Description:
Layout: H1 2-19, E1 28-34, H2 44-51, H3 53-56, E2 59-65, H4 69-77, E3 83-86, H5 91-95, E4 100-107, E5 113-118, E6 133-136, H6 142-154, E7 162-165, H7 170-178, E8 184-188, H8 189-197, E9 201-206, E10 217-222, H9 223-228, H10 230-249, H11 251-262, H12 266-276, H13 288-300
Amino acid sequence: MRLHGVLWTALDLALAAMMTPFPAAAQVTLIVGKANATADTVIAVDVGDRMGFFKEHGLDLQIVVFTGGSKMVQALTAGSIDIADGAGIEMALVAKGAPMLAVCESASTIPWFAIGVPWESPIKSKEDLKGKTVGVSAAGSLTDWLAQELERKEGWGTDTLTRVAIGGSTTAAMAAFRDHLIDAYVGGTTTFLVMAEQKVGHMLIPVSNYEGSIASGSLFASNRLMQTKPDTLRAFLAAWLETTTFMRTHKDETVKIESAVTGFPESVMAKEYDIVIGMFTTDCRFDAESLATLKRSFVGLNLLSAAPDMSKLYTEEFLPNPAGAATAR
């Protein structure tokens, strides 16, 4: 009887142990920098974080917002962040020696930039812009380069447009329209959606109307992360792709989160969603057109004195089911 009781006690303990849940696996903390608080390409990380996709992959994200890609890359260089969520244009900083590589072309085209005109402007098409005065944020900026790209794509020749630097804020653009200082402006699509609600201006065309793939969104990983925690990086990229897949099929949920992050009303973000959602890639791979456009832009924007070997600036090693890399030109 004594042996029988001991056996039952042992069995009870074993069953109790089986029924006791194991503690959840510890989440790995990953510090992610955003080049901008509200840019459409980078905001996907907020959607994925709030929807729990990164946590499902064992990641606890700490998201840090910067006021530009250069400052974000400075923080990565200093070891303050692990991943930089920015644009392909920052691949030029890899060529300059930043200790990172691009690991995902998150968005190819650039519909979140547009050319807009005053509310009652007679300009009805991009062809009507020839010879007009176009506002840009600053000389040598991306918006300045995009205006020059319109000239090149349309075959107008250089300096057909009179480009005027007016700053990058919605307020500055609205004032320039009201004072008839410019005929058009290159800026974010949300700028023109807000203008339209106030009947000050409206979007004429998204930049993607004439500019093809340009890797408008790119994710960068520090050399340290790639070398010491490659599986953590793979988990991040897998969660990113799950996030963008979710965003494509769940407009209402995505718009609510984007509105909360940007401060723009849901009515504006719903329109923005329809304009930009198609830009996200389904596999993070770098396409040849994006690489060729970036290569040309680095010189055109005076970021580099000579075109670099693009194959040295990115890797697809950490993507799900990695395949051969795109051919750099």
